Amino acid sequence: MSITGRPQDHRSLPASLAGGSDLAGGFPPGFLWGAATSAYQIEGAVREDGRAPSIWDRFVIRPGAIFQGQTGDVAADHYHHMEEDVALMARLNLRAYRFSIAWPRVLPQGTGPVNERGLAFYERLVDTLLARGIEPLVTLYHWDLPAALEDRGGWLVRDTAQAFAEYAEVVARRLGDRVRWWITQNEPWCSSYLGYALGIHAPGMHDKQLAVTVGHHILLSHGLATQRLRSVLPHGAQIGIALDFYPVYAADERPETLQAVEQADTFRNRWFLDPLFRAEYPTSLFSVLGVAPPPVHADDLAVIATPLDFLGVNYYSRMLVRGVIASSAASSPGSPGYEVIERIPGAAYTDMGWEIFPEGLEVILTRLHREYRPKALLVTENGAAFEDHWHGGDSVHDWQRIHYLQTHIEALSRALAQQVPLKGYMVWSLLDNFEWAFGYSKRFGLVYVDYSTQRRIVKDSGRWYASFIAAQRR
Ligand code: FCB
């Protein structure tokens, strides 16, 4: 469907977009319709109740690191608005909520003494969700490594993987009787490459060799934590990991472009998938990156490939690539032998500059099912930033987000029709929040946040999602 006008509110949207929707019936009963957030992006309260700094608290104060020098010190102040936010989730008819636990709230030094007040916050959150019939999905790591661990080498040292498993056990012992869904790591590609090669995320380093070492230790942390969680959690607990995926498309049919597709796919999708599901790194990964392999010890890959209950899929867009001529400087070792096409004539983009490409979600889900056979799949993030405007009333008209969500949900139903064992869908994000290097300039929420008053206003997309969920069978 092409959208040409700009309706004033969702009552004037085409019937198929205006709520309810004709998608009902395609989704299995018990499908987890939800929304996602992460600790540093929404909580604020960074110096309260015994929380110690994370690598993000340090990174945000670096000059030039974040849009307008913004920080997560206050964010959406969810730490103090937790009850109100869970009530909002109930208004949105959410059946599930994915959130992350801040490691430095629970173990301020990364290891050692447990901070009771930190754990108590998450226990209250879980109990409040359950009281409203909302299924909690816990992410153990969404990028906020305790700064104390960074001082001991952070993800560059193996000990941090062990520390993560111990932290996972602390949380599981406390919440495991109430939380069924566990996600170890969120987007290790971003933690590794954006943090250690491109320097645009904490801790802000610029060395690809370090990025592959970090990637390996994060994978190891996932494997060790999965084993630890399994030994502590009751039977029936669902343990997985959330990876970010970009299906790669060829801009033309030249042989160098087809090779470019392979390279980009290895780098962007298979780097973490293959060790997790095949106990090996893709053979060309390190030559594509122009680095030496990371320090892999004897049993590491077996630990990393510990069987999972589900794979979490974070999907935002695709990659369109074109091969570059082999002799050009851009294809020297360590530089990708391809060019990513950022602007495609006729394509629509979000406020992040990401192409809106719903078909890619169907493509990645069916491919993962076909090639990697995870026991189950869960869309752990999907959503869009648009320039939302609030004029002081009780609505925000974001028809583009409704369109984005609806077309992506249609892609889910096509994947389900192809037997993909899909269990749920989490919109990124429940609330507008701190979008990392972009600060508060990008709004992804179903709910608008007026940061000067911390007032929450449900956007039209939130209302649309609520009525869509209500129209589904339980
Ligand atoms: C993902 C992150 C999430 C958010 C979205 C837009 O890569 O997991 O925290 O920033 O992108």
Keywords:
disordered N terminus; 474 residues; alpha/beta; globular; 3-stranded mixed sheet; 37% helix; 8-stranded parallel β-barrel; binds beta-D-fucopyranose; TIM Barrel
Notes on the structure:
- The chain is α/β, with parallel strands linked by helices.
- It has one domain: Glycosidases (TIM Barrel).
- 37% of the residues lie in helices and 15% in strands.
- It contains 15 helices and 13 strands.
- It has helices at 39-42, 55-59, 78-91, 103-106, 116-131, 147-150, 159-175, 188-196, 208-232, 255-278, 285-289, 300-304, 359-372, 399-417, 460-471, and strands at residues 32-36, 96-100, 135-141, 181-186, 238-245, 248-250, 310-315, 319-323, 338-340, 377-382, 422-428, 447-450, 455-458.
- An eight-stranded parallel beta barrel has the order 1-2-3-4-5-7-10-11, surrounded by six helices.
- Strand 12 (447-450) and strand 13 (455-458) form a beta hairpin.
- Helix 3 (78-91) runs parallel beside helix 5, helix 7 packs parallel to helix 9 and helix 8 packs antiparallel against helix 9 (208-232).
- Bound molecules: beta-D-fucopyranose.
Short description:
The protein is α/β, with parallel strands linked by helices.
Identify the overall geometry: globular
For the record, the CATH architecture stands as Alpha-Beta Barrel
Helix vs. strand class: alpha/beta
The radius of gyration over CA amounts to: 21 Å
**What is the straight-line distance between the termini?**
29 Å
Major beta-sheet overview = 8 strands, parallel, barrel
Q: Please tally the helical runs, counting DSSP H or I stretches of 4 or more residues.
A: 15
Order of helices and strands: EHHHEHHEHHEHHEEHHHEEEHEHEEEH
Per DSSP E runs of 2 or more residues, the count of β-strands stands at 13
The CATH top-level class label: Alpha Beta
What is the CATH superfamily?
Glycosidases
Instruction: Please state how the strands of the largest beta sheet are arranged side by side.
Output: 1-2-3-4-5-7-10-11
- At the third CATH level, what is the topology name? TIM Barrel
Helix content: 25-40%
Say which molecules are bound, naming each kind only once: beta-D-fucopyranose
The average pLDDT value, as a whole number, equals 94
How much of the residues is beta strand, in percent? 5-15%
Number of domains: 1
